[in-house]
Recover the amino acids of this structure.
């Protein structure tokens, strides 16, 4: 964590504001569609729009191909532990769990699944969280 250039991360440019607004508009659009069709909004949110936008922003910022490739690969591995949540949430809510209890339990479960994934992949030479 000490190698993170916080001053560069926290510096905001006009283009950063454009990126935030565009990303927010996409999320707003999808949530508005949900009012009329939960399946269509689920399809749209399942598309890797934020990942694609992030890679576009990385390319625009001049990041090398290796960094963008690493981002895409890391995203693949980190998406996998989130998938059980999309089956556990409906089960919990249909079985009487409150929204906030369900969300809290699934955040904790997903965090656990993330760490299981990190430690499991290290055995195969894939290090998602360098020491």
């Amino acid at each position: 964590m000490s190698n993170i250039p916080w001053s560069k991360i926290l510096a905001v440019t006009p283009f950063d504001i454009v990126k935030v607004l565009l990303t927010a508009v996409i999320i707003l659009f999808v949530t508005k569609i949900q009012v009329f069709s939960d399946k269509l909004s689920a399809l749209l949110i399942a598309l890797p729009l934020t990942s694609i936008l992030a890679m576009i922003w990385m390319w625009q910022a001049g990041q090398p191909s290796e960094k963008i490739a690493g981002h895409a690969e890391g995203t693949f591995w980190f998406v996998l532990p989130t998938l059980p949540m999309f089956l556990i949430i409906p089960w919990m809510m249909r079985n009487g769990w409150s929204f906030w209890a369900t969300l809290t339990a699934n955040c904790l479960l997903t965090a656990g699944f993330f760490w299981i994934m990190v430690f499991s992949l290290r055995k195969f030479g894939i290090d998602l969280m360098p020491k």
